[in-house]
Amino acid sequence: MPQTPRPAAITFLIVLYSIFTAIALYRVVQFSAFDILSLAVIPVLIGLVIKAKWTKVALFFHLGLQTLVFLALSSTALIAYQITPEDVKLEFGGYNIPVLPVAGLSLLLLCTQWWAALTYHSRQYLK
Question: What value does the CA radius of gyration of the chain take, rounded to a whole number of Å?
Answer without folding.
Answer: 17
